[in-house]
Design brief:
The chain is 21% helix and 26% strand. It has eight helices and 17 strands. A nine-stranded mixed sheet has the order 2-1-17-16-14-3-12-13-15. α7 (302-311) crosses α8 (313-325). The longest helix is centred in the last third of the chain and has 13 residues, at 313-325. The chain is globular and about 60 Å long. The mean pLDDT is 96.
Length: 340
Amino acid sequence: MNSLKLSDFDYTYPEDLVASHPLPQRDASQLMVLNRIHQTTRHHHFKEIAGFFKKGDMLILNNSKVFPCRLITKRKTGGKVEIFLVRPIKENQWEVLMTPAKKINCGDQFYFDHNLSVEVLDDYRKDGLRTLQINYDGNLYSVLDLVGHVPIPPYLNRDADKEFDPIRYQTIFADKIGSVAAPTAGFHFTEEILAQLRNLGVEVYFLTLHVGLGTFLPIRTDMITQHKMHGEFYDIPGPTAQAIGLAKKEKRRVTVVGTTAMRALESAASGSLGYTEKFIYPPYEFKVADRLITNFHQPKSTLLVLVSAFAGREFILQAYHEAIDNRYRLFSYGDAMMIE
């Protein structure tokens, strides 16, 4: 029986290590390299990442694109209302989070610029989600580009910057619209790094997992095994799946970028197709990845639990403490680690 508790995945950190803004250069991030077998750590910079690859290696990236899913308006009484679009459930209907949740009633309507309006279709639910009818002219995502706000994490303690957040809270290879939070491990990659890897003979492939509540909602149960993930859409294109199969058959290394890509691959390997509620926690036998590139994650998060399953909980927490001692920048806009 798995007796791991949420408190087993806790750690403390100085608030000033939370990276509230990105570095000027994507690949200027620090890179901690963890060896699972020898339980060792090394300190590098991400611009050196190509030095850890060889011909025939495979790199898998999540190409999901973040859209400006935060809508901000006011109630008739003047109070602020925030609507966070989570995912479409049918034509022109979306599952959303709303603040203040319990003061908004079924039938309430809100209006925005560019002929965008919404109507609440249900009452407050136990899971905090609501259903909205969204009315707009033309393409919804084009309208949201004009009206919406980039969904940077609340722990950054600032408003989204209209100049750099739409560019930097996004990977350079993002082209499949659908995420409400970024697959941040991919932030560090530049066109130059991808070119270096391809020139080395590294096979670079993409999949899509649209990051939703499943990735960033907190765990609210004391026992890890009792946590239920919110479902997220994913797609592994045929060429990517075939290349993975061949790489595994030929015993070539597969490096996965990000916990979202890892969950998509493990979900597919477990027989799930197109939609996943998979929660990966220790002990777990990974079926695809030989190595994982990821960021430093918040305490007690599903992301920290996943990397603990990949590298070992005690080793990961030890590495986090070492990173903090070495002033690594934390979380979405922070530094990276590669676990091999």
